[in-house]
Amino acid sequence: MDEDLIDDINLSEDPLVDAVRDELAEQIDEDQLNDLSEGDIQHVVQESMEESIRELALHTYERILSDGEGLERYHETIEGFQERLEDRWGEPLELLERLIIWSMECGRAINQDLGFQAQRNENYQFQALVHLHSRSVQVALEIHHLLEGGFADGAFARWRSLYELSITSSFISNHGDETAERFLSYHNIWEYYFAETYREHQDNLNIEPLESEVLEGLEEIKDELVEQFGESIDDNGYGSGWAAEAHTGNGGPSLHSMKEEVDLEHLTPYYMLACESVHAGSKGTLDRLGIIRHEDIEQPGVLLSGPSNAGLNLPGQLTAISLAQVTTDLLMTHLNSPSLADMLGMQMLVDNIEQEFAEASKALEQDDREATEEWANQDIVDISLNYIDPSDLFSETFFENHTEFDSLPEFRDALPVDLDDVKDGDSVDPKTDEVVQAGSEFDSFQDLVDTALEAWVHRNVVPSEFDIDDN
After folding, report:
1. Residue 403 pairs with which residues in a beta bridge?
2. What is the largest CA-CA distance in the chain?
3. How far apart are CA 87 and CA 83, in angstroms?
4. pTM for the full model?
5. Mean predicted confidence (pLDDT) in 360-365
6. For burial by CB atoms within 10 Å, which of 45, 272, 345, 347 has the most?
């Protein structure tokens, strides 16, 4: 039998390998082990692997479900975080919520007054705008909820949708009933091409197959719309065929060309950034709104895997701007003194929201800069020994991987002074450095502590970091 294979099985710390080893011990007599070939061993391993994995998965699953203590700790931490976020962003978030409710009330009122009549008179522009407005209010509420939870990047991604809704709303507002009717009918074009894609992948997805009659019916509706509105409405389901006749630019209509026509292209830089919050690219992955970076100050590395107190200003401000735009488009369908007052008052509130978010963000960045500078100016040994328990900082794994010491007690015994008294004034006792040099790969006690701290951060901070602002 291959000795390396036996050594790998014996030395492994993988619980799955442990389970396979136990299975081997049950199925193979110890006296027979050396007479077996590697193929024999692999056959037994293969037979036992499936059951071992299932048992291991069940054990892990049950452990996660029964870990009430971990869930409770998380909830307690989130409660403290929410209190700090409310202290920091409460005022602008409340103002944004007031704008959303105001916009909702405007939409409800105008729909109650004009909605029924608009349907009877086939006022397609009003119908399209009121649908776009109701969806925009819902998206704005989603954004507000994400901001309250500390998810700036998620809120920014949802603003992307709100911005697209504002472009569509303004385009229909500018081009009237025929464009609005094409917009309201276009979903039938999209559904036909979606059905084609559905049928193409239905076998691999193991889903209910699409009956041929259904696809034929959708195709018939599509053809009727082409006959009614012309070939331009059929854009193979890309989403903008409804705007083709009203579009004045070169080529087919697109979000890019429509935003230029309705004078909303100045928000393009923010839209590009918001797209990165949606997509899985390098920019959106490495640069997060929820992380404040000071390029001129040394900072600890942070991987953001939860909520943060930072970055709420940009999605908050943009949400106010775009929602007000969609609401204005709807109110413009029925101009009177109350609607004019709503539009003017809403713009006042938008200005106030922008200012409050900007001021909260500025104060946060200043407080974070001061805290970061204080952190950067501390000595690494002072930070480590004053704030972290030595048994946690100097783990057994750390000693095993980086030193010749077997444990923290052995390391303590080797030092010429007590670990708490390693430093003499602003410097480390030279004899301590000599002990470190003799028993490890490090040149000094500070180098050893630096590596231990980095490992501690990766174990305890980076995987669960969700609040970079404790100010």
Report:
1. 440
2. 97
3. 6
4. 0.77
5. 94
6. 45
